[in-house]
């Protein structure tokens, strides 16, 4: 890493989540970033009061049983009560995520958590999963963010929120015992395979588009995944083991060998899909896809090919050791170049603005409303592809106007007690321009000066 006047600001804003008043400027920015890998807390204080995934699954199962047992006229009310509770769980999780982002002592790793939660995206506009979206991040992403990619992948795709969001819980092998029984009872209704999870694993989570897989590979992989479902989520099969969040049901699994990407996998129940996942998780194509996304997030919308290649080589050489990949990223000269700063997403800008004002807590409903106003609702990207990571997506005039409105409101809440002239150099060490400093100094009030700082070109980028 080449040390420059911009390096502290890059460490705080590009790798971190934004500086806070009174925090010391790192004298060794690279070491400050890397030290966070050894200080990360999997379950920090703001998240400790949230319902965990096993509890949320139990609530889901209770609701499912109640609906099956209730008269037809009462079922809608049971479902609505479940969704009301789910919305409460969602808001609590949004508030905890925001508070953790404001309080964290390891903002680099926290940023990585947010990156992976968007990589393995679910969207709460499918209201069925509204209660569980936060627990995918808390219980699947956070414990595995510094481990092996294969473990992170497995935890994410087997989480109940993902299984429900991509309809994997409804996938039945047509020639499985359950599929054959269903066909014998009703020959007019087609039941069976759902390819959503298989397709998104290949296209979004691992290999990436245009990486050489075919529709036949998607279908074969989907057949291998049959039997992956929630614990006791239907009347088929055994009940839920205590604390379980995933279940493999042999009676739903499509029998036979599968051929995916030119390799044949013997019939083997649950292990068949695990073997396929292992091979695609450690594939060079997956390494390049992940390296590209990381480099795009941390360095540039059009990431340097040489950096992508080096990160991919580390990924392959270590068997997907994410900690090693992060170290390679954090020590790459390209990551410390100030010439092309990244434009902040609404989440980045909202969090960094609150951190800049010294906020450590935002009520959950306000946190959710803030991100809705800024145009990036938490865990609601609208598709499994997650939110985009390009400036063109977030820099439209109407989006910038929203930031101006929020900046004025936050500045008004802070009042004139905050001196933006003194604060700006702390938040943007080495990157604050004379033009912005002069505009802040000439502002007609402290509140106006603060709002100008929050929407300055330097603060809008990282």
Write a structural description.
This protein has about 450 residues and is mainly alpha-helical. About 55% of the residues lie in helices and about 0% in strands. The chain has helices at about 5-15, 30-35, 55-70, 70-105, 105-120, 135-140, 150-155, 160-165, 175-185, 195-205, 215-225, 270-280, 285-300, 305-315, 320-330, 345-355, 365-375, 390-395, 395-415, 420-425, 435-440, 445-455; strands at about 230, 245-250, 260, 265. The strands form two sheets. It has a two-stranded antiparallel ribbon. A two-stranded antiparallel ribbon has the order 3-4. The longest helix has about 30 residues, at about 70-105. It is globular. The two termini are about 15 Å apart. Mean pLDDT is about 95; it is low at about 235-240.
Secondary-structure element sequence?
Answer: HHHHHHHHHHHEEEEHHHHHHHHHHH
Mean pLDDT: 95
Helix percentage range? 40-55%
Radius of gyration: 24 Å
Q: Quickly count the helices.
A: 22
Could you give the topology of this structure?
Blueprint: H1 7-15, H2 29-35, H3 53-69, H4 72-103, H5 107-119, H6 133-141, H7 149-157, H8 160-165, H9 177-185, H10 196-205, H11 215-225, E1 228-229, E2 247-248, E3 258-260, E4 263-265, H12 270-281, H13 284-298, H14 305-317, H15 322-330, H16 346-356, H17 364-374, H18 391-394, H19 397-414, H20 420-427, H21 434-442, H22 446-454
Antiparallel strand pairs: 1-2, 3-4
Question: What's this, in brief?
Answer:
The protein is mainly alpha-helical and 462 residues long. The chain has helices at residues 7-15, 29-35, 53-69, 72-103, 107-119, 133-141, 149-157, 160-165, 177-185, 196-205, 215-225, 270-281, 284-298, 305-317, 322-330, 346-356, 364-374, 391-394, 397-414, 420-427, 434-442, 446-454; strands at residues 228-229, 247-248, 258-260, 263-265.
């Amino acid at each position: 890493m080449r040390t420059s006047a911009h390096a502290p600001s890059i460490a705080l804003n590009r790798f971190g989540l934004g500086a806070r008043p009174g925090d010391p400027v790192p004298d060794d920015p690279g070491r400050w970033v890397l030290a966070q890998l050894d200080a990360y807390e999997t379950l920090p204080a703001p998240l400790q009061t949230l319902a965990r995934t096993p509890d949320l699954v139990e609530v889901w199962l209770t609701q499912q049983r109640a609906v099956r047992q209730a008269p037809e006229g009462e079922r809608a009310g049971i479902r609505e009560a479940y969704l009301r509770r789910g919305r409460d769980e969602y808001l609590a999780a949004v508030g905890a995520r925001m508070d953790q982002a404001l309080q964290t002592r390891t903002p680099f790793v926290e940023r990585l958590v947010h990156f992976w939660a968007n990589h393995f995206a679910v969207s709460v506009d499918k209201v069925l999963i509204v209660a569980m979206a936060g627990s995918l991040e808390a219980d699947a992403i956070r414990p595995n963010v510094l481990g092996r990619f294969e473990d992170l992948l497995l935890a994410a795709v087997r989480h109940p929120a993902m299984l429900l969001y991509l309809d994997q819980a409804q996938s039945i092998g047509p020639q499985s015992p359950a599929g054959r029984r269903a066909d014998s009872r009703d020959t007019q209704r087609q039941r069976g395979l759902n390819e959503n999870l298989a397709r998104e694993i290949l296209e979004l989570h691992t290999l990436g588009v245009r990486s050489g897989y075919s529709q036949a590979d998607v279908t074969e992989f989907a057949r291998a995944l049959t039997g992956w479902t929630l614990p006791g989520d239907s009347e088929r099969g055994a009940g839920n083991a205590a604390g379980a969040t995933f279940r493999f049901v042999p009676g739903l699994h499509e029998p036979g060998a599968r051929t995916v990407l030119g390799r044949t996998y013997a019939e083997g129940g649950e292990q068949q899909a695990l073997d396929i996942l292992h091979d695609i998780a450690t594939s060079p194509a997956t390494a390049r896809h992940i390296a590209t996304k990381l480099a795009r997030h941390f360095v540039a919308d059009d990431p340097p090919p040489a950096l992508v290649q080096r990160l991919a080589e580390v990924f392959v050489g270590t068997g997907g050791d994410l900690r090693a990949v992060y170290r390679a990223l954090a020590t790459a000269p390209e990551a410390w170049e100030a010439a092309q700063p990244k434009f902040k997403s609404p989440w980045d800008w909202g969090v960094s603005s609150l951190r800049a004002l010294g906020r450590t807590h935002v009520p959950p409903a306000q946190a959710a409303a803030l991100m809705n106003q800024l145009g990036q609702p938490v865990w609601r990207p609208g598709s499994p592809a997650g939110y985009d990571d390009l400036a063109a997506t977030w820099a439209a005039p109407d989006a910038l106007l929203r930031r101006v409105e929020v900046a004025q409101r936050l500045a008004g809440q802070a009042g004139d007690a905050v001196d933006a002239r003194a604060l700006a150099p702390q938040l943007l060490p080495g990157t604050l321009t004379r033009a912005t400093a002069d505009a802040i100094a000439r502002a007609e009030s402290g509140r106006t000066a603060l709002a100008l700082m929050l929407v300055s070109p330097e603060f809008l980028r990282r």
